[in-house]
Amino acid sequence: MVHSSSVFSDSKKHFLILDALRGVASIMVVMFHIMEVFSGGDHTKQIINHGYLAVDFFFMLSGYVMAHAYDDRWGRMTVKDFFKRRLVRLHPMILMGMTIGAIWFYFGESSLFPKIADTPVWLLSLILLLGWFLIPIPVSMDPRGWDETYPLNGPGWSLFFEYIANVLHALVIRRMSKFILGICVFIAALALVHLAVMSPDGDVIGGWSLTSEQLQIGFTRLLFPYMAGMLLRRTIKVMEVKKMKTFLFCSFLLIAALSFPRIGGHANPWMNGIYESAVIILLFPAIVYLGAVGEVTHPTAQKVYTFLGDISYPLYIIHYPFVYIFMGWVTDHHIPVSKGIFVGAGVLFFAMGVAYAALKLYDEPVRKWLARKYIAVKK
Questions:
Q1: Range of lowest pLDDT (110-124, 159-173, 185-199, 302-316)
Q2: CA 6 to CA 13: how far, in whole Å?
Q3: Distance (Å, rounded) from C-alpha 319 to C-alpha 51?
Q4: Nearest-angstrom CA–CA distance, 77 and 86
């Protein structure tokens, strides 16, 4: 039952549970990447099988939160102001992630990345410079041989698409009526289903290479969840339900969805495509909405949720350089999962520690300084 006193002037409600769910998804991404090396490249054997769908969840959260935060500001905020805010929020940790990747690059030399040994310092420096500005590199420049647009820090590809979403948001999508946005969401959903069901492996994996095929995958993965998140926020008013503590339930749904085994195997990959389509199109919006309406009252829960929200973005954007090294170690020494999982757990906690330290010692101070210097507060 929803009481009238619990209905927000919800335009500036802070969604602490959504922040915490982003943290849960970030941890699942790290776990997925750690376990990925033990699959031998066979998607059907992957433990934490659908962890990559966390990226699609991030895009939906982003669309929801961007509509929530900025839809009522455009009358007093310019497009330039919006871009400055997004750069201040996202880019300091992008610089940190790329720099960590460069520092650890040569430590990752292994049979898994045979080209690293032949990478001169000048090329590494050029790739780092391009990475700092989030300029994707062509396949021919990738010194790992994985065709990554950001070989010093693979997950940078999703931030590239996040920036594209922000540009589209400011210039185009924010001007759409709910009806037009709904049509676009429907079309994007069809494209997503087509990608998932018709792809050779029955999944939406991809988006990190500067090829036409990979760019198509990236845009398909971006457009539905981001626009659906915006539409969800615009269509259904946020109403906090008293005593409805939704975090644990939403976390269970999210973890279960991202951990679920591959469906259909090699014989029927389309079945897995249907599963992923259902997760992104049906389950993720439900999780986002339940997270938005949930209530947080206990002080300990508030601290835990705040911590998860705080480390979510830093953990996501800095963890992969450590995973590269872990993957190389497992590959070169033929480490079984029974042994590697304990070291992998250490990698997870180490990355979480580095993420929190980077947040408190670097990201927050830098963002505060940039905000004071470049973002004018309009009353």
A1: 110-124
A2: 12
A3: 14
A4: 13
